[in-house]
Amino acid sequence: MSSSSAAPAAKPPMRDALVAAAFQLFLERGYEQTTVDDIVALAGVGRRSFFRYFPSKEDVVFPDHERCLADMTEFLAGGGEEDEPVRRVCDAARLVLRMYAENPAFSVQRYRLTKKVPGLRAYELSVVWRYERALAAYLRGRFAGQPDGTLRADVIAAAVVAAHNNALRSWLRSDGKGDAGVAVDHALGHVQAAFGRSVHPRPAAPLLGPDLFASGGERSERPDDVVVLVTRRDAPLWRVVQEFESALGRA
Amino acid sequence: MSSSSAAPAAKPPMRDALVAAAFQLFLERGYEQTTVDDIVALAGVGRRSFFRYFPSKEDVVFPDHERCLADMTEFLAGGGEEDEPVRRVCDAARLVLRMYAENPAFSVQRYRLTKKVPGLRAYELSVVWRYERALAAYLRGRFAGQPDGTLRADVIAAAVVAAHNNALRSWLRSDGKGDAGVAVDHALGHVQAAFGRSVHPRPAAPLLGPDLFASGGERSERPDDVVVLVTRRDAPLWRVVQEFESALGRA
């Protein structure tokens, strides 16, 4: 947020001025009561300038999502076969967090505004949907040809978005206090644990019954290196060993 | 869909007539080109009758979601402590599927319409969001006081909705052919396997490092009865036994 940097500004000043004027008016008068004419008058520019940057009044509330969506798509496209897919989409989701955390005061203001205005809530849902579809499209590509590939892709994308937003919204509700990054890392860790390569259970193959079974683990790039064993705590050790050996094909 | 039943009709005939007239016009002229006046003229009723049943033109496209949301909320509220929470939300999601499957031709028509009209897509996103929040609210109640309770609730609700919609949309894309129930059961089974009581891994406690760890398993009603052991396939047996014992607190 420093203005003394020698680097060229990434965002045109007029665009920033329009966002600042819009939020000043939204907070003073309310969102519905503010027109585009009011915004351009305060910013000292013409209507055409507004619409050059923002297709509608809703868009000025979320001025950075298009850039963030483009960054996310580029980040996902830049990955290779060696990237663990669930980790990659979690890292992609962190780009959204970074955008919010760049300017906590603005993000908290917008959060309060969005909660109050149903039209903005609907707009936000459509933005969240686009992030989710970007993550799902990447995962669908990575899981192509695998059993339940599109299902797994859609479920994991939704889980990543939900975890990210759970942490993000807690942070916004706390007025941007605390470290949003730590909270989001914790939430995304939950999803990685549930779906990432090492601990993804294989639902279709409860080889050993409902309470005690082993599976071949994750079926993606390295299908054979992990075994997930779920067992009752009171199972006798000999039985656990037997099932483990059996799952490995050693018995 | 039988009209010979002696039971009283659940939906008023005028409401059905408005939905039928609306869809006839949407398909003939397009959604945007059809006004509420056109719809009421074809149905032979006044504008006031339309708005008695539907707040807006969008609502006539999704005439049964309000009832379904109410049914879902009632179903969730009717559950007891003995219900496994993830299974309960999966069963709640099946109420939505049932609504679509009741009338495949109408559901397929609407799916095609929704894909073409951005305003309807936005409306549908807001409906999906309300289902997701109903499921999440139930899970937050069930997980109250547990570590990461709201996070787990939000992630599972999102995963259930994504799995349900993955199967539902495949069915709609196939023009309503095949058994939607079987497809949705399979998709929800995936979520239950990932998050249900028996196989929910405990992300926050990778006690034994990234490749070989044990955890206390699911932390809901019966926190201590399941152990999830994730191990490399090439791990020596002595190490697996050691870690299992250690996870049980026996060692």
From TrEMBL, chains A, B:
Chain residues forming the annotated DNA-binding region: 35-54
Keyword DNA-binding (UniProt): yes
Classification via Pfam families: TetR_C_14, TetR_N
Gene3D superfamilies found in the cross-reference section: Homeodomain-like (1.10.10.60), Tetracycline Repressor, domain 2 (1.10.357.10)
Gene Ontology MF: a single term: transcription cis-regulatory region binding
Domain HTH tetR-type span(s) in chain numbering: 12-72
UniProt KW keywords: DNA-binding
SUPFAM superfamilies: Homeodomain-like (SSF46689)
Protein name as annotated: AcrR family transcriptional regulator
Species: Streptomyces griseochromogenes
The organism's taxonomic lineage, starting at the top: Bacteria, Bacillati, Actinomycetota, Actinomycetes, Kitasatosporales
